[in-house]
Design a protein that fits this description.
Blueprint: H1 11-22, E1 37-42, E2 45-51, H2 57-60, E3 66-67, E4 73-74, E5 80-88, E6 97-104, E7 107-112, E8 115-120, E9 128-132, E10 142-150, E11 172-182, H3 184-203, H4 208-223, H5 232-243, E12 253-259, H6 270-290, E13 296-298, H7 301-310, H8 312-324, E14 327-329, H9 344-362, E15 368-370, H10 381-387, E16 392-394, E17 410-414, E18 420-424, H11 451-460, E19 470-475, H12 486-494, E20 503-506, H13 509-518, E21 525-527, H14 543-569, H15 577-590, H16 602-630, E22 638-644, E23 650-657, E24 663-670, E25 674-677, E26 694-698, E27 705-708, E28 718-719, E29 727-732, E30 741-743, E31 748-758, E32 760-768, E33 774-782, E34 788-796, E35 801-808, E36 815-820, E37 823-828, H17 834-837, E38 842-843, E39 847-852, E40 855-861, E41 866-870, E42 873-880, E43 892-904, H18 907-910, H19 912-920, E44 924-931, E45 937-938, E46 940-942, E47 947-954, E48 963-970, E49 976-982, E50 986-992, E51 998-1003, E52 1010-1015, E53 1020-1027
Parallel strand pairs: 12-13, 12-19, 12-20, 13-14, 15-16, 16-18, 17-21
Antiparallel strand pairs: 1-11, 2-3, 2-5, 4-11, 5-10, 6-9, 6-11, 7-8, 7-10, 17-18, 22-25, 22-44, 23-24, 25-45, 26-27, 26-31, 27-28, 29-30, 29-35, 31-32, 32-33, 33-34, 34-43, 35-42, 36-37, 36-39, 38-41, 39-40, 40-43, 41-42, 46-49, 47-48, 48-53, 49-52, 50-51, 50-53
Helix pairs in contact: 1-3, 1-4, 3-4, 3-5, 3-11, 3-12, 4-5, 6-7, 6-8, 7-8, 9-15, 14-15, 14-16, 15-16
Length: 1032
């Protein structure tokens, strides 16, 4: 017999031959893919019931189930359909692997014997549940399962597009429900063939190893007959020979970790996230049971707390696998928060609450910060991380930059104060590697999932070749997709150490960072913020959420401060630790990166507003209780207490309530972190203080309001309306920076003087912005106040518009200063480079400043975050009008205040920082339940204006009931020694970290009611003050 003649060589022909052999679309009647499942059998019985509620299993199974069948439709959006699935396995299937094959719209969870066992999601490639790996002689043949199907997709229920508002009437369909025999040997052959195809495509025609992969795959097709299982071992041996060829020692190593990033809320509400966690994590548990080397990482303490409450048996399994080292909690925070908008103290609390939870529930603190998805990273994060016991950071969102490619994947990040942390961006630019073959030809029936492309991209895309030889490879379907699959694990194991590819090992975050730390001396350093050049509108969208965030941060600050002082001065006051923890966790939940930023659907925004209302309501109750306890036992008549929660003395005009309901203006002086009795209502005109009184004038010729004060400030005069000094601009939300800018040219409908002067001068006006929107504004200047306030009310009904206010200043500077957490930084006012103009819209907190030598102009606000300075124009973003994913975002009435503050000298010396604090922390006028004190009292004062006492609270540790935590930071950017004076009965003072752990060498001498603390620029320091036992 003549020898076989080799076929002609043709790359595309060979490639398509293999592709069609494994295709799920073409030739499935005779190719290998079509034999993956063997015999099939219908379910014995199927019934269902619909509910608008998210019921617990125990309640759901008691409901009235009615007959159902494949093809039935159910819904609408956000409802739940429960299916009862009764199964009888054929006797002939003994010895086989049996699956329940299930395909439906929505996200499913299989329940067996009263416990969740696996998630089902078409998008997450989880369309079957393994009933048994091998049906035994004595195994039961009949059983009943329940499948809980949420009427929402993996990414919500957008109408038409993913990011569109949800379709409330969307219906869902059950498409498949049957038993089937699964052929594991065919599955493994498919894994090998898809990998070989991926290697051939990924390495390309110029690579020898690529041809070897394609040749091997072609040979496997030659020897493998899908209808004859006895041919499979020969094909498997060919693949094993190829994958058994090892690479060299210089290969890049990928640390593969199972991952399932789940947004705590986004295109679905918080309550649905609870179920997404259960669906995904129970699937990961099954993989951990079957694969002892599989490691699954999980962040966000809030999600774990939800699972602990709603799925206790699943949570116990997670704790068990954590003890084995397979389930690895990471991140150290309560949620994956936004990296820009939360205050410095709120960021500290993310770690404090998160790390304490992980320590309590899993026995260890997290050593790495895990924030793969957010909208930017504050320059103070490195210092906050290190203060919470974290020196490692993993993220990847800067790969989404719209303009510039970030130059590193592994580097040292140096924060505002100089604190360094090791940062790693997975070079595959993804936190959910799924093996999508973008370069493939799905239309030809090629494999749609092959990790060799992503494996190769991780190496070729790495920006730090030669410096770092290790990278993270995070694999799994996120947002409820169930995380990793067995197929992914099988593929990655096959690529363990194959020649021509990087080495792949199933690993953990600790192993990854240990490997990176060994080469840390070779890495480059990035200094300052990590700015995301995308999603700039999130600094402004959903203004009510932004306002709630700022207000609730203030409320919790004030409650903690007054409660701490009441604890220190009283003998019976009980610090409301449990209530405060609950309120803080609500606030931290709302600071998730798709909530506080406003990038969520309407249901989420409504839930967030309810959370803020709870914080306001309960917070104000706690505030009144603390104030009452603070002044208990003081002599004096019943009256009002004026409280200052800031660390400097304040003299301000205050509107005090009168018995008849009216208000009286009074000039009040309150010491730092203390109180003063409210002055009695004046019976006669008060003599003016040496300060120049306020005056307001209205010109007759045109509607122009002039606010005049301080002749020393270069004779500055602002035309608030009618001139060119101040303009309100409307800008299209999605247009390029500074394009399509449209001034609101309408004349004021009304302009009137409110108060002509004395203690307070004010005027107000109305402005029709458009036929649908209008603005009213009161311009207020108080005696002695360094800024003019703009109390603003807007009725806003627009589409795709952006409302800004702009202040041209007679100032020239190449950079402007913006407040961030625990400090400030400079950004350019020009567009010299692409890195400059990519920051056409930036974020700030309470203030921004544009200064030249000797003079400057600061713009303050009480609830805004979006801002910019270009040239000499300071711009504050007020409102947006996007229509997706929430068509109602920002519609309605808004009230907010911003302020303009001219100053001589630097902004530090002029007091811009305390002025912005004062705008955001108004003096509190609280009714004293008993006699109000007759004299002023101060708990703390500081010797240096460069230092801010940000927080006073009780220590978290139960054993430290009478121990206070003080958090201070250096705000000017200087080295300084600061004396902290206190009137509290302090027994001991010691430095601690942000987790409130004592510094063994941090004892601070406390004498003459004061102690000295040393600061470097922008350094945050925390102190433990142990109070003396209360006198009996």
């Amino acid at each position: 017999m003549a020898a076989a003649v080799p076929a002609l060589k043709h790359w595309r022909t060979a490639l398509e031959r293999v592709e069609k052999f494994v295709s799920p679309l073409y030739f499935t009647d005779c190719n290998l893919r079509g034999r993956l499942f063997g015999q099939r059998h219908p379910v014995a019985a199927l019934s269902s019931f619909l509910t608008p509620e998210r019921l617990r299993y125990q309640d759901a199974v008691q409901q009235d189930f009615r007959p159902a069948q494949v093809g039935d439709r159910f819904g609408p959006t956000w409802w739940t359909c429960w299916f009862r699935v009764e199964l009888i396995i054929p006797e002939a299937w003994i010895g086989q692997e049996i699956h329940l094959c299930w395909e439906s719209d929505g996200e499913g969870l299989v329940w067996r014997d009263g416990e969740p066992v696996q998630g089902l999601t078409t998008e997450g490639e989880k369309n079957s549940y393994i009933l048994t790996n091998r049906l035994g002689e004595g195994d039961p043949r009949s059983l009943t399962l329940y499948v809980e199907v949420a009427c929402s997709g993996l990414l919500g229920a957008g109408k038409g597009t993913m990011i569109a508002p949800p379709d409330p009437e969307k219906m869902f369909q059950l498409k498949r429900a049957e038993l089937a025999v699964f052929h594991r040997d065919i599955h493994l052959l498919l894994v090998d063939l898809e990998l070989l195809l991926g290697i051939a495509k990924g390495l390309g025609k110029d690579n020898q190893r690529s041809f070897q992969a394609l040749y091997t795959a072609n040979q496997m097709v030659n020897v493998c007959d899908p209808a004859r299982p006895e041919t499979f071992p020969v094909a498997q041996a060919l693949a094993s020979h190829f994958f058994g060829q090892r690479g060299g020692d210089s290969q890049h190593t990928l640390h593969a970790m199972g991952h399932c990033h789940i947004d705590t809320a986004w295109l679905w509400p918080f309550k649905e996230t609870v179920r997404k966690c259960a669906r995904s994590w129970v699937t990961a548990v099954k993989l951990m049971e079957q694969n002892a080397d599989f490691i699954f990482v999980c962040s966000q303490a809030q999600q774990l707390e939800w699972v602990k409450s709603h799925y206790p048996s699943l949570y116990a399994q997670l704790q068990e696998f954590a003890c084995r080292g397979q389930f690895v909690p990471v991140g150290g925070t309560w949620v994956e928060m936004d990296g820009n908008l939360p205050s410095g103290e709120a960021m500290v609390r993310q770690f404090l609450q998160g790390q304490r939870f992980f320590l309590q529930e899993f026995g260890k603190l997290c050593s790495e910060f895990w924030l793969p998805d957010t909208f930017g990273y504050s320059a103070q994060l490195p210092q906050i991380m290190r203060g919470c016991g974290i020196t490692r950071f993993l993220t990847q969102k800067l790969s989404w930059n719209l303009v510039n490619s970030f130059p590193h994947h592994t580097f040292l990040w140096e924060g505002l104060d100089g604190s360094p942390v090791l940062v790693h961006f997975p070079p595959g630019d993804s936190y959910g590697m799924q093996g999508n073959v973008e370069e493939g030809h799905p239309g030809l029936g090629g494999p749609t999932h092959c990790p060799s492309f992503q494996v190769l991209k991780t190496v070729t895309n790495n920006q730090d070749k030669g410096r770092a030889n290790h990278s993270a490879f995070l694999f799994g379907f996120g947002d409820g997709g169930g995380g990793p699959t067995q197929t992914m694990l099988d593929r990655l194991r096959r690529l363990d150490h194959t020649d021509g590819l990087p080495r792949v090992q199933l690993s953990s975050p600790d192993q990854l960072f240990q490997a990176l730390e060994s080469d840390q001396g070779k890495l480059c350093t990035w200094v300052g913020e990590l700015f995301l050049e995308l999603h700039n509108g999130t600094y402004t969208t959903h203004a009510q959420i932004k306002k709630g965030n700022r207000e609730c941060e203030r409320i919790l600050h004030d409650v903690e401060l007054l409660s701490s002082l009441a604890l220190a001065r009283g003998t019976h006051f009980l610090y409301p630790a449990a209530q405060l923890q609950h309120l803080w966790r609500l606030l931290l939940l709302n600071q998730f990166h798709d909530v506080v930023t406003g990038s969520c659907i309407q249901l989420v925004a409504e839930d967030a507003m309810k959370h803020y209302e709870d914080i306001r309501s309960h917070g104000n109750t706690l505030l009144s209780a603390a104030a009452g306890a603070l002044c208990a036992g003081e002599p004096g008549p019943k009256g009002l207490l004026v409280v200052n929660t800031l660390p400097w003395k304040r003299t301000e005009v205050l509107a005090l309530p009168n018995p008849g309901g009216a208000q009286t203006l009074a000039l009040v002086t309150v010491p730092s972190i203390g109180y003063a009795p409210a002055p009695p209502a004046p019976t006669s005109p008060q003599p003016l203080l040496p300060q120049q009184p306020v005056s307001v004038m209205q010109e007759v010729r045109r509607p122009l309001l002039r606010v005049l004060w301080g002749t020393s400030l270069h004779g500055i005069c602002w035309a608030v309306l009618g001139g060119q000094e101040v303009r309100i601009q409307a800008i299209l939300a999605q247009c390029p920076p500074l394009s399509h800018r449209k001034p609101v040219l309408a004349q004021a409908g009304t302009l009137a003087v409110g108060s002509e002067g004395g203690l307070r001068g004010s005027a107000w006006f109305l402005l029709q912005i458009s036929p649908s929107s209008r603005l009213s504004q009161e311009v207020v200047l108080d005696i002695g106040c360094p800024y003019v306030r703009f109390h603003t009310e807007v009725y806003w009904h627009e589409a795709h518009k952006f409302l800004k206010v702009e202040f041209p200043a007679r100032v020239r500077s190449p950079q402007a200063t913006y407040e961030i957490q625990f400090g400030h930084l400079q950004r350019p006012t020009h567009y010299n480079t692409s890195w400059d103009w990519a920051r056409f819209e930036v974020w700030t907190h309470r203030w921004m400043d544009l200064s030249e030598h000797g003079f400057g102009l600061a713009l303050l606000n009480d609830c805004k975050y979006g801002a910019s300075v270009r040239g000499n124009i300071l711009s504050l973003s007020l409102l947006r009008a996007p229509k997706a994913p929430d068509a109602t975002a920002d519609m309605g009435c808004h009230k907010f205040t911003y302020a303009l503050m001219p100053h001589e000298g630097s902004f530090q010396d002029a007091g811009v920082i305390p002025a912005a604090y004062s705008l955001n922390f108004p003096l509190l006028v609280l009714p004293a339940p008993g006699p109000a004190p007759t004299t002023a009292w101060s708990a703390f004062s500081l010797s240096s204006p460069a230092v801010v006492l940000e927080t006073i609270k009780q220590a978290e540790t139960i054993t430290q009931k009478r121990t206070l935590v003080l958090r201070l930071y250096e705000a000017h950017g200087s080295h300084v020694n600061c004396w902290v004076h206190t009137s509290l009965p302090v027994q001991e003072a010691v430095l601690c970290d942000l987790l409130e752990r004592r510094d063994p060498a941090g004892h601070l001498p406390f004498q003459d009611s004061r102690l000295k603390v040393t600061f470097s620029p922008f350094q945050v320091r925390s102190l433990l003050l142990v109070l003396q036992p209360p006198s009996t």
